[in-house]
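Section handout 9: paired folding examples.
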Amino acid sequence: MKISHNLGVLLVTALLGGCFSAPVVSQQNTRSESVAVQQKQAKVYSATVSRVSDGDSLQVIDQHGRKRKLRFAYIDAPELQQAHGEASRKALQDVLGKQVEVTVFGRDRYRRELVKVSVAGHDLSLRQLQQGHAWHYQSYAKRDQAADDYAAYAAAQQQAKQNRIGLWRAREAQAPWAFRQQSRQGETVN
């Protein structure tokens, strides 16, 4: 009788334990939920472009007259000293003086706002990728970028690469992160 009582307790415990256990959540669901929360918390404001620093950085003046330094999220353009760096910066010159919508996702280590910038509803980062003036910064994007934007950015880069547009004309274009690492290693040797 004691054995059947112990079995009954084990059976009830197992059944109840299954009712109260945490649901299994896929990593993709967690990422999607995290990105959705981040997008809801994103700050959006209007500004006027006052300076193009390089192919993925701008300075703007917001509606309160404050200067803000921006870094495009999820892309990385060639450094100015790098092949195609000047061409990448020049590709953004047409937005000087224009009104833009800025969506802020956070800040980088240099205190620049990490942003998505749109002119008349058109995403400037996506345009840079389409014209072959930047890389999709997938190491950050796969973790934080909205799935539809991630797909659009990846497709734009692939299309530019396939059609040998912009920086992709070079046989072996060097990614900016590799260029920066190589530059830092060169500085330590000297």
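Moving on to protein 2 of 2.
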Amino acid sequence: MRAGGIRGGDSDLDSQVVCTKLLICDDHPPIRKAVTHIARELLSDIGIVEAGNGAEALALLDLHPDIDLILLDLHMPGMSGFDLLSELKLRMPSLPVVVLSSDETRSAVIDALDRGATGYICKSSPTDLLAKFLEHALKGHIALPVAIARSAAAPPAEGNESAPAAAQGSVDLGLSQRQTQVLGCMLRGMSNKQICRELGLAEGTVKNHAVAVFRALNVSNRAQAVIEASRRGLSVGNWRDQLELQNEGEGQR
């Protein structure tokens, strides 16, 4: 993180935020301290828990089931961030995980997105941009700098080379309600089998919906879908609220 002042978030951040408790997993205490400071500048009453490695993160997740978002470093002692990401998506597939890493290589970005990451933030970002990326994630948007998206072969985006994509609200992709639900699950890093369980659908049905989603976004895989969703400003939303709505719908059948 390079030096720079923190510009305040949107004045209506409190009304838009979907994250009330954040888990920061990084083996460097100064990084955790800096991210904590930025998060509380954006949202003063946000709950924050810290982990220095994968084992601590998993233990804290059991102790704090109300965690809404995880910021995850990829390179830590013991369990790697990649392995931890895979384990997190097995345990809590709907829980958004955003990578916070100094590794800006294309292979790292693609691997993280393929494993279910909802976004990817570079530690090299100036503090004011890091604040913007974190604000984006707290609001339920995909946190993915344009430069990272381009390095991962995303379609070119106009505007600032470094800033996160601006949220565009609801974007009409021509998808059905069920296909939109599948897209939301995919953006939260869920596998087809996990989507089947959450939505109560057959695996073949989910695959067909996934094909329709890829076609609507003009992509061919999940990593590209996350990148394109970021470019379009699509929102991951509040996964807890969406899960409650899904459960209510099932109860009314």
